[in-house]
Amino acid sequence: MAQFVTRLEDALAERVDSLVAAGVFSSRSEAVRLGLEELTDRLERERIGRQIVEGYERIPETEEELEGIDEELEEMLAEEPW
Length: 82
Known about the structure:
- With about 80 residues, this protein is mostly helical.
- About 70% of the residues lie in helices and about 0% in strands.
- The protein has helices spanning about 10-20, 30-60, 65, 70-80.
- The chain is elongated.
C-alpha cells in the first residue's frame, strides 16, 4: 500500500481532528483516504460528463432520434410508483 506524507494548514488539521473526535472518521488517515477517494471519483465523473457532452456536440442527435422522446418520457414517469 502506498503511503503519502503531506503538510496541512493548522486550521484544516484541526477540522479533521474534530471530525475524528466526533467519530465521523476513525483516524486522520481514514479521513484523508476517504477525502481523496471522493475527490478523485468526482473529478473522474466530471471528466466523463465532459466527454459525453463533447460527443453529443460533435455528433448531435437527429430529429428522427428525438422524435417521440417526450411521449416516451411521460410514459416512463407515469409507470413510476411515486
